[in-house]
UniProtKB/TrEMBL annotation:
It comes from marine sediment metagenome. This is Uncharacterized protein.
Amino acid sequence: KNRYGMGRKNFNVPPGTNIPFIAVFEDLPKNLGEFTVEAASSSLGLAEQ
């Protein structure tokens, strides 16, 4: 729910760095065997001044 991340960890992330995250899905169909998640978009961050 916090798009900026805890302690603003989503800002100025160096290339090749990992940021742990979790995705939670609710009310999935009982007969669901598998699913795929794809990134819908991304954007470049602002360079530090």
